[in-house]
Protein 1
Amino acid sequence: MVKRIAVFVSGGGTNLQTLIDAQASGLLRSGEIVLVISSKPGVFALERAERAGIPAFVIPRQQLGLAGFEARALELLAEHQIDYIVTAGFLSILSADFVQRFPNRIINIHPALLPAFGGAGFYGLRVHEAALERGVKLTGATVHFVTEECDGGPIIAQQAVEVRPDDTPEALQRRVMEQAEWVLLPLALEQVCAPH
Ligand code: GAR
């Protein structure tokens, strides 16, 4: 049975787009994206979902608070009979209570080689700023299961990316996306959804 996937987003949704493309090309075939939930209104990820014909909902996290967001998300997840949740560029930390309802069922993409540059406060461009400040020569991306420990759940897949001496946070973010995130996420998701 093809698994039913919800993708949680908060921004541009390039990782969502990668999954939509992987579905179209057949790379992702054991799972189907049937629901997109954005924690912010007006983000481009919503347009990507609409273009792909995937039902998309905004649950304004700032307005409703985390508890309000999660309560509405739970309703939508049940209505759409979701098997797996992917947090892709989703910038809220889910509560322990929420996470424990979906053991090994929530998959996150993080733009560093965890456990380096992970945890609360490490999101988006900040992760790459921290990597450059620390002077690491390799960084990358990690796909992992979400547990109540932020960025601390079991690792599914990692891909390393070289840091260049002249990198800016923006240049490094772009290279990590191109060489690691967009490659790794569809492969890891197919692996998780495939019958075994
Ligand atoms: C991506 O690099 C993603 O890994 C990161 O936000 C960026 C935006 O993704 N996520 C985190 O930092 C989560 N801690 P997007 O283009 O898919 O919206």
Protein 2
Amino acid sequence: MERVKTGIKKCQDYLPFMEGESLREIDILTDKLKDKRIAMVNATEYGGGVAEILHSLVPLFKGLGFAMDWWKMFGEEEFYNVTKTFHNRLQGEAGPLKDKEVETYLKYIKLNAREMTRWDYDFVVIHDPQPAGLIDFRKGGEGTKWIWRCHIDTSEPNREYWDFLYRFIIKYDASIFTMRQFVKEDAHLKNIHYITPSIDPLSEKNIPMEKEEAKRTVSRFGINVNRPLITQISRFDPWKDPLGVIEAYKLVKKEFPSVQLALVGSMASDDPEGWDYLYRTLRRAGEDYDITIITNFNGITSKEVNAFQTASEIIIQKSLREGFGLTVAEGLWKGTPVIGGKAGGIKLQIEEGVTGYLVETVEECAEKILTLLRNTSLAEEMTRAGKEKVRKEFLITSALLNYLRLFNYLL
Ligand code: UDP
């Protein structure tokens, strides 16, 4: 395992977005938990929502004076192939659990567990299935509290894979899910808590950007800023349904010929399937020059993501399964209308017709895109409601407070 380097963020800087009461509670809990040492463990430092959250949450904890380490698991292609299969199967893909997968998974768990012999933490937070098996190597008896944080949509998991994972998560002192529907009724887990993922309003991705600057930035990628742009920002993953987005765009294009589509995606280091799916998406787009498909390999960093979210007429997140979908909160925070798939955590963020639209099919998605393109005042009302919902419920300081409450509770 490798320690991920992070900076420090001050909680006070977030005051403009917080209720004063929350800051007071953060101070009280920090005082109670003062000397506690905490580890966060996940599979990747870059790409995807978990890394995005840890890049803000860890510096905030450090800013409060906590000794917090972020550990990134060691892995190689064979491990990532297996854990990506786990991810897909836990989100419901059919297929039998293979002995070889179990063997590879356990091999890497054992390798990573070597680092733990030197650990001396009060709380260990394990993110997602990749490092879940590390619990078998816990030491320190009752002293260290182990928490499993599930970021994925486990509402209808492949049973064999869920049962395999369950062997581990049942051993944790507490578990965190994004929403109730993700916990199986027959799961006898200790201390289940619900915490939604969240965005950092002061990160480069989310700080306000002038529309003009955003337009200049997206124009560098071939976007014509005088014509409407719809964008989906996500990994190239079947559950994110980029192919469905292209189909919806094609339907819109027939009635609204000036529309353009951008698919902006990061290639996460623990997602080997991403490349195959990127090529499939490129094939589906064919020679339509109004479709722009770009990744971090084309110079997409947080600043460019911010620009696309700010400059677009509509943000799409047409997921078929979704743990949360930070890109929805990010879009709403920019004041851009969002159309999301009616799945998992997107349903927590989009209130139908109030903060955005929820869609289940390509046709519905196209219809809602047309509605918003044709009715800009409707879009304005929704974005006001959407931004306020994000401020109240989905900012990183809420997650910070919820983690502090959980640590305090476990003491
Ligand atoms: N993201 C990014 N660059 C990209 C695509 C995505 O920085 O080209 C970020 C996106 O802004 C969001 C995160 O990656 O912060 C994706 O989180 P989400 O919860 O939407 O999906 P996940 O990848 O975790 O399934």
Protein 3
Amino acid sequence: MKQQIEQLRAELHRHNHQYYVLNSPEISDQEFDAMMRQLQDLEQAHPEYYDENSPTQRVGSDLNHEFVQVLHQRPMLSLSNTYNKAEVAEFYERVRAGLEGAPFEICCELKYDGLSISLHYEQGRLVRAVTRGDGVQGDDVTENVKTIRSIPLMLKPNGDYPEVFEIRGEILMPWTSFEQLNREREAMEEPLFANPRNAASGSLKSKSSAVVAHRKLDAYLYYLLGDTVPCDGHYENLEKARSWGFKVSEGMCKAKSLQEVYDFIDYWDEKRSQLPVATDGIVLKVNSQAQQRTLGFTSKSPRWAIAYKFQAEQAATRLLEVTFQVGRTGAVTPVANMEPVLLAGTVVKRATLHNADVMEQLDLHLNDTVLVEKGGEIIPKIVGVDKNARNECTGEKVQFAEVCPECGASLIRIEGEAAHYCPNDVACPPQIKGRIEHFISRKAMNIDSLGPETIDEYYRRGLVRNIADLYDIDVQQINGTTGSREKSARKIISSIAASVEVPFERVVFALGIRFVGEIAAKSLARYFKNIDALSSATVDDLLQVNGIGQVIANSVVGYFQCAENQKIISRLRAKGVCMELSESQLEAQSDRLAGQSIVISGVFTHHSRDEYKTLIEQHGGKNVGSISAKTSFVLAGANMGPAKLEKAQKLGVRVLSEDEFINMIETR
Ligand code: IVH
């Protein structure tokens, strides 16, 4: 027995780390919860094997040491989970007994599947945002949280809110943003996020708040705390909070009976698929705070609240074949092709297998009965194989491809990377077409009269083999012999021609250098100013640029070392594609702030915070997040936080006003 308990603990410790620290779970939440319950039961039955470090003893940890850690004023507890109505009924009865028969109401809410956040407001202003961390202390992520549009930085004037209060809620990435982000990452051949929760958590921990702003996060608030909150009712307090400007769920109601609680559960179990964000259950809370106090807390969770978790939908089907997809930069993804099966309202017949390690772990054989899940994930995944169902019809173990299915080149696997690559970037068709599709895309050259189908056709007809070929196509070639498509052919040619006006920073993005996304492209363009400087930059030069790390730097150098790429760039240049910053962009630049690290803090009147960031970069400076001895100065607006001011003074860092800063960059 002891051995079984210890094995479970070890497993749970590992999965906990995968989930909370690495943001990369290997098992579904349901499997994790099931294991945790098993351990809880065993520990309860065998108190002699108590261990204060057991996974059951902690609420979980998402601490990240790159942020300042702060203690929570009130611990952030979690909720105990229930999985069926009988357990909900037990909770209801426990509450009834605890309140000695007094009437009570239950506030029913959706359980949002993101990451919890604690927001502090003083005099109607957001002063601090802290992640849950281990429940006792969390990371100060105020700067990142401020980029989330639905979180009010200032509350509506004259509201009847307390002078000082805390409000807790969930940070989420809406499905549409999640899908868009994964599409972008797929195009950049970056690893995809498994679900919106991981995407939200990965985003919020980003060191650059520009990246966070780009990620389109959202937040719902569900718990108001403070020494003086307006009402006794939790529901009523949230309605107040809504009136102060907070986003509070519309799907919240007070139930007066267990039946009304069940109705709420049934309603949302079905309707939740229509919500813009992920939910994984229902939260039930005793509404009156006086009654909440009567019921109190256990060491881990309140006795007055409970979560009811929805079942993740799963289906069993047969594995027919594993095919391999080649992306724009040659990364090869294994895809399971299965007998079509109905899952969460849609027919599923393909599921991603991510990479060779995932495939190996599943130990897939052809004809296997596989279990497909679409929990918080948009892309269905295979979560297990029914090994008992294997019989004489079961085929061979599925092996990862050795050669590229598109061009036959031998695949390579770079040490330390999960993905296999096709190294034939010059002649492998999906890589060529993918690069051209990226080049014409909206955020790159925006040649919107072309699309993937046309690119595919031009490729098959031999009209294009690289991005520079686009500028050589003429109307006759597109038109073919029939002449019927002349009008659209002219439109295509003129939109290709018009793309030479696209500014340099988007051209850098359009080149499709691996790992160089929109933001990195912008920084590179602004820093190096033209393609010649960029293409001759060394890794060390590149590392000087804001937001450019080793991986991007190596990739940029590798890109420009390739003779084929140099040829393409000179052809693009000859066609007039913009290879340098414009006159006006250059005029706005100087090296007045070269080598300086600048912190921006407070509220500004002349420019927005983002505009100041751009100005700093245009003048060669670096905008950094937190004050340290290396900070050159702080650009301070109104209401700079007192803690920051004190830190600056202690370290002897200068604090400049908006006007002083503008003077500094404008003096010639
Ligand atoms: S109330 C003491 N309400 O679920 C009560 N939590 O395991 C604290 N969650 O950490 C939480 N939706 O991240 C509450 N409507 C809701 C929620 C909610 C999602 C999350 C939250 C918490 C976890 C509980």
